[in-house]
Predict the structure of Alginate export family protein.
Amino acid sequence: MPENNKEKDLAMYIPYGFSAVACLTKGRAGLLTALAGTVFALPAHAAPEAADIVATHVQLAQATAGGAKAPSTTASGTATTAGASPTLIVTGRDAPWHSPPQQLPPLTSRPELYGQPQSLMLHPLTPIQLHQGPWGVFNANTGAASGFGTVGYYAVARWAEDWSSLRDKRNRHDFLDPLKFIALNDSGSIYLTLSGNFRHHGFWEQHPALGAVDKSHVYLSNLRTNLGADLHLGEHVRFYGELMSGQATGGNKFGYNARWRNRVDAQQAFVEVRGHMLGATMGAMIGRMSFLDVPPNVSAGSVYPSIPYSWNGLRGYSVWRRFRVDLFDLSLTNFEYRAFHDQVGWRTRLFGAYTSYAVPEFQTFGKKSQIFVDTYYLGYLLASSPITATKGVIAGSTHRDTPGVRVWGNAGPIEFTANGMWQGGTFQEAKSGPSRPVSAYSFNASVAWRFAKWWGHPSIGIQADDISGGDTRKSATRSWGTFLSPFVPSAYYLDLAQNFNLQNVIDVGPLVTLAPTINTSLLLRVPVLWRNSVHDTIYFPGGVNYAYRPTGGYTGVLPQGSFTWRATRHVTFSIDGQYTALSRGLRNAGAQPGAYFQTNLELTF
């Protein structure tokens, strides 16, 4: 909640959450110290568009050099040597801050890779590089298909990592591995995994929120620290808890709320029961948890600003060989600045079901192909969700029903995603005002060709979205057509500066990803934006209405770039930049164009 009345006036223009970016940097202590001293004076995000090609057969050949047999792939997608158990024993001689290239986690394992295009990992990786659960084909694309967010060396949700291979001490190859598997009984069936993360996220922006906050040349410095403990009581029961704290300061700053500055609280705390039934791995989770089993253009966990979204409730899942289903009923956590005062926010609910079918693998242009067909229903209940009026907004609450279908994956070198959603429900005007039906839609697609034999293994493609808007000229009882996107998609889906939400927008533009080296990646994108309906406004992330009432359909263009350097398992650094060029109609309405620059430094174990 805003901390003073002035901030309250500005709160509608401040992101209730951006989505995110992680970070880490290269490895000698002196270099790290010098770099950290520089970075903490800069800005931050992270690049989700990483190349799948960092985990190629070349790396596998290096990893098995010295006469070892080349790995094959188990049913769960884990690499194993012929005739051996699925655990690859590594006795390596790694220095703590210097990882040989074959043992660097692939860039696709970065947690912030919950965006598009979601390139599949077309080659098996060694257990050195992956810590995924028993999800078989759904571990494709660094686990993005599993429903638990990306899971590589580290994960978006740290509880989704599986470190049980460290039960055999010969598999320990990193100086922090003793913290990842702490046996609490002789057999190791009861064990504790500790995790942690420190992130500095700073950014400079010329005109935040397109000038709506009446601030310019703003610099914000954002720190986040979290510590997690994952207690496994045998095969079927585990408890997970995570503490998180966020701090923020800066120059010419504005409007910090409790998701920017939060002393310390339980970000997650749940119990999970898992077993095998009807040929599936089934589980139930109850408590406070992160939730990512939605398309990345719906939500990416909103790890920006300091504190990501946290949900309270019940989740149940079943995973068969080629089909999985997830059922959930969750309430959003309300964050408070005071320590251990976060509350269950019963006034904001997310509920529904998500299913995914893995089409049997096939060959396209002589390359492995894997496609997923997802169907889902997402229900929203929002006690406060105003809609746009000709001037200002109409206060009220809303219930939204959002069924959808998503087809995504790769056909050989072609990487693609196509997602369609229809949204129904009702909007109830405040103070016993009239109720009106909702009818809205969202179509999202991207397609790219991966040139795996070219330098940098570039992926070159195009992204397009068509998301409906409303008509403020309609009467108070006519249907409302603005698609509601309240939970903030990945910043790397459309707008790095997070000035535009996926509501009332049409966009199209080229998209290029490149991996110049084994541990660096580059994203380039130039989306061009229009309003879907010229009788509706533009929207800030989180479903917030701008006060601007521009003329014309054309909105602007957002040339942007993002560079990420993954130096070691524990350190990553990234730089993002964007210029927001606006249409004359939007500038005449009061909006201001401007530059955005950001850096991230992240330390993770």
